[in-house]
Specification:
The complex is a heterodimer of chains A (about 270) and B (about 250). Chain A is an all-alpha fold and about 270 residues long. Chain A has helices at about 5-30, 35-55, 55-80, 85-105, 110-115, 125-155, 155-160, 165-190, 195-205, 210-235, 240-265. Helices cover about 85% and strands about 0% of the residues of chain A. In chain A, helix 1 (about 5-30) runs antiparallel to helix 8 (about 165-190) and helix 1 packs antiparallel against helix 10 (about 210-235). Chain B folds into 2 domains: about 1-70 and about 145-235, Rossmann fold, CATH 3.40.50.300; about 80-140, no CATH class. Chain B has helices spanning about 45-55, 90-95, 100-110, 125-140, 155-170, 185-190, 205-210, 215-220, 220-235, and strands at about 5-20, 20-30, 35-40, 60-65, 70-75, 145-150, 175-180, 195, 200-205, 235-240, 245. In chain B, strands 5-6-7-3-8-9 form a 6-stranded mixed sheet, with helices on both faces. The model of chain B is unreliable at about 230-235 (pLDDT under 50). The chains are: A mainly alpha (about 270), B alpha/beta (about 250).
């Protein structure tokens, strides 16, 4: 029989994969992988804050990540530094500050490895609720801004000229990114969330010829990665996050075979 | 208030600058339903900038911009599509508005690229892509069509066909068109109103008026002003459907 904690982790993981699939496609299309990293790193600060104030982790992470995103947008307007430098600045300083704060919290025992790489044992019924309420909410909002976001990803001026309000869509998407990081941090861990966003979507890119197809394959890839990863994690007692990401990598490598084939066909 | 029901966009002494450099200054023009307004002028004279002011892409405008429509179709001068996106022509057609299959087919047929519908956008040639861009802009039946050098890269015969198509669209949809073109010859033949730009409006009016204008001659040279007269000479006859030539 499967253990309860495993079933919980599976339900939580599948809920996350459904959301990271479409979001991950946009992360790839809009070249936001480093941006995702920055938000994820800042999540550590959110977690420590949650422990200090005895607050819900997901909500706390969501608030801090959104805040970091706002600071980033502000810094982009105010300074002449290139975007990637600003991202690096925020990513590492928020990670550093988070770790320093943990150093001060000697009265709480922290499972740092769990925070960084995810811990299936830590998934509670409560977390499942947050994932299965927050996740669909993220998807519904994404569906609403899809047209504007996608059109402006293809060409900003076209979207703007034809009245789709791309700036608003971009701002909302940023919040959605903070949202997915908040609900998946316990499961995947903050160092690997971006992997969960990018790798299944990258796999999907290799085998898709249309945006819709890429989103569907990305979701399927994510779901398979979670199932495969968690089974491995159970079998070999490895950390859940790395196991899921490794499974996703495995699927990505498989998708490369398909690329090779189609290139051969073309020639 | 919009006193004239046919006016779609009205610029009144619109000026736009980036970092204290004026890209255009004091541009006034009106685009009405069913009429084609063409912008001409040398490189860097502010043609695309003016188009972007009309479209609302540039927002901090000095002067007045009045816009009375939201149904806009746009063919940008430069468009770089990121190939990290798997995008077929049919996906691109519904980029900003959901269309029925029929409307997509009609538009692609009109510009002669229906056979490319399932092709990846990245695999098209420059001219093919340009035709797809035009098809996308007209497929949503806009009230205002802004075409920034729409036929660049299109072969010569295609160019003539597409310009005819643009004229036809303007008549059939009764939409206002803002056209930017380098091809003075075509411009002068298919346009209701010409605005000659050089950072500011150096002259405007009907094609004949503009061609006679001294500033226009100074900008484009004496030869350019003869294009129109040559054009007029050439079309002292009409081609009937049977291929006969009839004198007017």
């Amino acid at each position: 029989m499967l253990e309860d904690f495993f079933i919980r982790a599976l339900i939580a993981g599948l809920g996350i994969a459904i959301v990271t699939g479409p979001l991950g496609c946009f992360v790839i299309w809009r070249r936001l992988s480093y941006f995702g990293d920055t938000l994820a790193h800042s999540a550590l600060l959110g977690v420590t804050l949650a422990y200090t104030l005895e607050f819900n982790i997901a909500i706390s992470v969501f608030i801090i990540s959104s805040l970091i995103a706002l600071i980033l947008i502000d810094l982009q307007k105010r300074t002449n530094l290139p975007g990637d430098a600003l991202l690096g600045l925020l990513a590492h300083s928020s990670l550093a500050v988070g770790l320093v704060v943990i150093g001060f919290l000697t009265f709480i025992r922290f499972d740092i490895m769990g925070l960084l790489f995810g811990d299936i044992l830590a998934v509670t019924i409560n977390d499942i609720f947050i994932i299965w309420i927050g996740g669909p909410l993220i998807l519904i909002i994404l569906k609403l801004i899809w047209k504007a976001l996608f059109a402006s990803t293809v060409n900003y001026e076209l979207a703007e000229a034809e009245g789709l309000n791309p700036d608003r869509a971009k701002a909302i998407f940023t919040i959605l990114m903070a949202g997915i990081i908040a609900i998946s941090i316990k499961m995947v861990g903050l160092l690997l969330i971006t992997g969960m966003l990018i790798i299944p979507a990258a796999m999907a890119r290799n085998i898709s010829s249309s945006p819709q197809m890429m989103v569907i394959y990305s979701v399927i890839g994510g779901l398979l990665s979670v199932i495969l990863g968690l089974l491995t994690s159970l079998e070999f007692n490895t950390a859940s996050g790395p196991s899921i990401i490794a499974a996703a990598l495995f699927l990505f490598v498989l998708s490369l075979l398909k690329i090779k084939q189609s290139i051969k066909l073309k020639n | 208030m919009n006193s004239n029901q046919n006016i779609l966009v009205k610029l009144k002494q619109a000026s736009f600058r980036i970092n204290n450099k004026w890209l255009v200054k004091d541009v006034s023009l009106e685009i009405e339903k069913g009429r084609i307004v063409t912008l001409i002028g040398p490189n860097g004279s502010g043609k695309s900038t003016t188009a972007k002011i009309v479209l609302g892409i540039y927002k901090k405008i000095d002067g007045k911009v009045e816009k009375y429509t939201n149904k806009v179709g746009y063919v940008p001068q430069k468009i770089s599509i990121d190939w990290t996106l798997p995008l077929r022509v049919r996906d691109f057609m519904v980029l900003t508005e959901n269309l029925k299959e029929e409307a997509i087919n009609d538009a692609l047929s009109l510009t002669g690229v229906i056979h490319l519908k399932d092709k990846n956008l990245g695999d098209l040639s420059g001219g093919e892509f340009q035709r797809v861009l035009i098809a996308r802009a007209i497929s949503k039946k806009p009230e205002l069509l802004v075409l920034d050098e729409p036929v660049q890269g299109v072969d010569f015969t295609g160019e003539i066909v597409l310009y005819k198509l643009i004229k036809k669209i303007s008549d059939e949809l009764n939409c206002g068109i803002l056209l930017i073109s380098h091809d003075l010859h075509t411009v002068m033949s298919a346009t209701d109103h010409v605005v000659c730009l050089n950072g500011h409006v150096c002259c405007s009016g009907s094609p004949i008026e503009v061609a006679k204008n001294n500033e226009y001659k100074a900008l484009f040279g004496e030869q350019a002003s003869q294009i129109l007269s040559r054009y007029e000479h050439r079309h002292d006859h009409i081609h009937t459907n049977e291929g006969e030539i009839k004198k007017n």
